[in-house]
Design brief:
This protein is mostly helical. Among the domains are: about 370-490, Serine Threonine Protein Phosphatase 5, Tetratricopeptide repeat; about 655-780, no CATH class. It contains 42 helices and six strands. It has a six-stranded mixed β-sheet, covered by helices on one side. Strand 5 and strand 6 (about 780) form a beta hairpin. The radius of gyration is 37 Å and the shape is elongated. The N and C termini lie far apart (about 100 Å).
Length: about 775
Amino acid sequence: MSPYPAFASSHAVAAKSGAAALSDARLANAVMCDYIRAGRLTDAAAALFHSMRLAGLAPTEYTFVGLLTACIRRGNPRLGTQVHALAAKGRYCGGSLLVANALLGMYVKCGHLEDALRMFYGMEERDVSSWNTVLSGLVVLGTYEEASELFGDMRTGDVAVDRFSLSALLTAATEGFSLPQGAAVHALSLKSGLEVDLSVGNALIGFYAEHGDSVEDVVGVFQRMPVKDVSSWTGLLNGYMEFGLVDNALGVFDQMPERNFVTYNAVLTGFCQNKEGVRVTFAWKAGLQGLGLFRQMLENGLEMSRVTMTSVLNACAIAADRKMSEQVHTFVIKCGCGSSPWIDATLIDMCIKCGRSADARLLFEHWRHQESFHIAWSSLLLSSVRDGEYERASSTFLLMFRSGDIQFIDEFLLTTVLGVCGALGFTELGKQMHLLAAKSGLLHACGVGNAIVSMYGKCGQLENAVTFFQRMPHRDLVSWNALITAHLLHRQGDEIWDIWSQMERLVIKPDSVTFLLIISACSYTDSDSADACMELFRCMSSKYNTEPAMEHFAAVVYVLGCWGHFDEAEQFIASMPFKPGALVWRSLLESCSKQSNMTLRRRAMNHLLALEPQDPSTYVLTSNLYSESAKWHCSENTRLEMREKGIHKIPARSWTFDDNAIHSFFARDRSHPQSKDIYAGLDVLTLECMKDGYEPDTTFVRHDVEEYQKRHFLMYHSAKLAATYGLLMAGSGKIIRVVKNICMCGDCHSFLEHASAATGKEISVRDSNGFHIFRAGICSCRE
């Protein structure tokens, strides 16, 4: 038996009677409508319409409405245009409002809004359905201002609005209007008595969830609705989620008399939205709750939309569970959702956040979605930054930048790339990003400006950092902190105190970062500023309502040690309101090294070993301490213990820049393509430096070997290799820029002083402590 009995009976009559059956146009229209309802849309309906014309039967307005409905369902505007021409020929466009509205609907639903508007404004007669059709089309396409203007014309023309008009306009208000405009529509719904209508009430809930002053606006509309459906309850749930009231939203979820997949999507999306700006543990739990909800959806056999899958992937990324992410990834592939551009982009983000960066890169290598390419590419870039892989981040960016494929760059991405340039000391790329910010109109953004100041400071371009800061139209506290950091990297303590005085005059409230920077600057003033440091520290809580943290205590200890106030430093540590952490003892240890206080160094080392027994740097410091005391056996035992425990120290690495590329070196590294020339050049440069008075300081070799071996170890440190390559490639007047990942040893420091004198070149080295600018045999650090 046919599932469409009306279609079966009508078709049987037509088949039996042949052309005679077509003598009744009404019967032909009924047959055509049954074809459409049966899903045999455009082809069958058009063929029957053709038969009507051959039989000499005049189509009625219902014939055109049926055909246009078929065009909408199949998304066939070409056939719709032909039907329009035929209707115009038969004078149905002006003579039948029903046909005219059907044509409007066809053009709107098929995305031909200009044709719809042209027809709409040419109509001699319009009803509320005509206005609603065009209004909804404008809203769907996101042209909210035009929708608002059309609604104004509608009101001016005394057209009585209905629930469809208000629902469409409230949708526009939710997406593109402000609160006053939406409230005006709400007032109109009250005046017309339509607030109690189900569709209008649901639209009002959606509007206030997005633009309301508080969740009470949403709750008020919901409570006044006499009839509620699953959309109403879901809107209320979403409203609680939008205002961060997750527990209330879950309470609504439990009370709902009915749920659908949209409800579950709202909860999943809410979990993902509300993980931002909260504790890590809460975010992790939110991710797990989202995954639990997904499991419940599967068990209930609910529909899995793309919104569902995107939310599930986001929840998995929040939970940061590698095994779970692999299971969800497998499910996405099995259910065939992996071909969506937005789901694939979210997959990459999930892989990255779940520690599967290699899988994320593999997905990106096979990328085929242009519309979401920038999202996937940005995720990979941010992943490298988060993992501290700045070279990989720069190469990922440069690959797209040089190919000209960058079509989209926003404030966040630009700020990230500027941060990468600063971390690497990549001056040339940083300047190009500054230019790109100017071309993109993003220089006015305070975040971008702050990133530019920070980038120039970390790249050794202090003058550029100061100049840009002074020209910034808007500054916040981050701007001032970035400027102070730039001066701190150049060890300009007195200049930092001048900036602090300027901040106080301008009544700029400092934060904990500002205090940490100012306290640290006391190590680099021309005269002993330990007293000023202590006074500032005491004012933190009493005057500025900022409680000192562990890092502030550690910074004070370092300042006291640097100026030789070791007794005061120990007394300060003893008076701390909480147990001193490893950071405090490390600061004391480093300051003692500057003043050669061996007794206090050993005491600090013992505390450090007790607090951080697994930290590689602790073992290295211990080994070096033994070596300085010529306790070679103890030093070797410490290194042996490291190897047995599988603890590896961070290898010293230095890099320089040439032709917009990074050239990286390790100690005694011969992997560079020009290593033969570099080593030959370094040998020649060493001889020239020795003529100038340089003598290798073998006390910086921490191994019990022969003197000639110590000299050989010193000869090819990474900083010397990088500087030599820079000198070989440098043109006239070019500054040699080197960055080192750890503190530069004293022998390299001495060597580069003599190298700057021997070559007449300026050599800039940024190590973990800041900048060393070598000019004519003198270093800016004055150490």
